User: What shape does this take?
Amino acid sequence: MSGLQLSGGPEAPLVSRETATILGGARIGLHPNTAHSVPSAWPEQILPARLLGTSATCWQEFWQCQPPCRAGQQNNLTWQRSGDILYGVIHLDEAEFAHSESPPLQAATESAYRQIFALLAAEQLPELWRVWNYFAAINTQTHGLERYRQFNSGRQAAFLACQAALSGKVPAACALGLTQGPLSIAFMAGNTPGVAIENPRQVSAYFYPTAYGPKSPTFSRAMLARPPGQEILFISGTASILGHQTVHTGDVAAQTAESLNNILAVLAEANRQAHSAPFQAQELCYRAYVRRGTEQPLVARVLASILGRADICYIEADVCRSDLLVEIEATGIHQT
Ligand code: 3EB
Assistant: This one.
């Protein structure tokens, strides 16, 4: 097995940390030990969120890679690269942007993305494949605008300033609200262009009408990245949206089934472009974000019945529209 490998699970020592080379990862959990224990030697996105459907208090994800790695840090951004693949995490405190012209979250978001683009330019790895975005109070209105919409304004401003495309070839992403913590953004990039995938059942997010905010979200429904010898499929956070509208309001089981239908549609589009064997829904690694923790069993039942899978990471989090109760993302890797 060469190239990148993704593994994840609750608490268990999933990889031998002595021998494995880890490019980066994520650590999810509300348990105090999660946030305050010894930091990892690799860039790690810390998500202070409640795990659902498990007695475990911590879930870890690892991207294993080929040595050697080169690491760097500037300000609040830590990164590591293996060959021509880079994984990084940036944490920003909104309080430091209290005196900006725009709302603090918007200014912090723009700053974070500008720092990411500056790093990728310096490292000559300009292809941003996947971004994981988290911040507090995503559905709260401040400065006359919902915070998710402020985030979209800041993100789009940075793409514009850094001459990155605003539509078409934009990264896969997710954006979730947590009950606490700073703005936290993890990202993966490389030097080979990815293939951006859209969903024929949905309006592209970058073309959403302004009813959803003054600036559209800058992400694609999926990205097919092609590092040497591999194909990585990043399916963005996917929700119960048809066209640009939320469907099945108030019904978490129906929203879960619709989100999976959307994932299957994105998967079919991706497979039209794939160079490797077709990606199967059953083989992917999933994270599911559930707005109301008590509804996790309903979500799990639908996912198990369609995917036949139980090893899914369930996280209590707020989805970016207040009528969305669940969002699901998936990742798969093939050798080519
Ligand atoms: C949606 O389809 C649901 O703003 O980066 C999903 C994935 C969603 C990514 C983002 C938002 C984002 O509009 C929300």
About this structure: The pocket of 3-(2-carboxyethyl)benzoic acid is lined by residues 133, 173-175, 205, 217, 219, 236-237, 239, 241, 320 (CB under 6 Å). The radius of gyration is 18 Å. The chain has five helices and 21 strands. The mean pLDDT is 94.
